[in-house]
Amino acid sequence: MNANTLRVLACIDGSALTPAVCDYAAWIAHRLQAPLKLLHTIDHHPETALTADLSGNIGVDSRDHLLEALSQIEQQRSKLRLQQGKALLQAAKERVIQAGISDPLTHQRHGSLVEALIELEEDIRVLVVGVRGKSHEKQPDKIGAKLESIIRSMHKPILVVNAEFKAPQRIMIAYDGSYAAEKAVEMVSTSPAFKGLICHLVCAGKDDAVTEQRFEAATHQLAQSGFGELIAQKLSGKPEQVLCDYQDRQAIDLTVMGAFSHTRIHDLLLGSFTAKMLAHTHKPLLLLR
């Protein structure tokens, strides 16, 4: 599919981060000159249904009556969730229009969010999601239950939102010489989303000849890419700690980095680092696969 027809897709669920998800989606859609779609899913959990366990020793007539009553309650709840979702999508649509997006689309569907995203993936240019949904929004030290599955399942850039919107002026590329890091450099250097911004290329946790050579090549590539300013920096220490500290010191607005790998071996090396960054950073992360 032509890149000009790919959409920024924002996943909203009514959690506290929903406004920020809308704002960041509008920002990156504007920077990319890409259309925007807002997605809300209604995920039914059979394991939590009211009718899940009625096989005890109650009378047949009583049980049938209770099942019918509970079925009606479930139907009413489904209608309410549908209405709430439509209202949520309408409010989100109005918000992104106010942010300058013309003709945003809305889409509501039943079922798993992960399954929905897999089906829609070929139409996605950038996916925008909150770091946690309604079920975890009172647990700031945890990432959302579905987020890891989304990251592992998708092959498109994922912008993970974890705070109120602030238009990015300074971005950081977390670099380690890996294939994912090289991909991040390539994407950032060619994407219109980052033109004119201040770019920090930061290498953390690796100090060998090969990484040094690749770091210099990446610095040269980015220097030719139209940034307002390029700052290359090498740091020592635990990557997730020194990168988060650097974010705070340099007032970084957005970090670009590789994410969970598909292979089990790489999961051991990269998966824990990605999870730690997601859990500890207070700035949005653009994750690349």
Automatic annotation (TrEMBL):
Coiled coil: none annotated. InterPro entries: Universal_stress_UspA, UspA. Residues 7-161, 169-289 form the UspA domain. Belongs to the universal stress protein A family. This is Universal stress protein. PANTHER family: STRESS RESPONSE PROTEIN NHAX, UNIVERSAL STRESS PROTEIN UP12. Gene3D superfamilies: 3.40.50.12370. The lineage of its organism: Bacteria, Pseudomonadati, Pseudomonadota, Gammaproteobacteria, Methylococcales. It comes from the Bacteria.
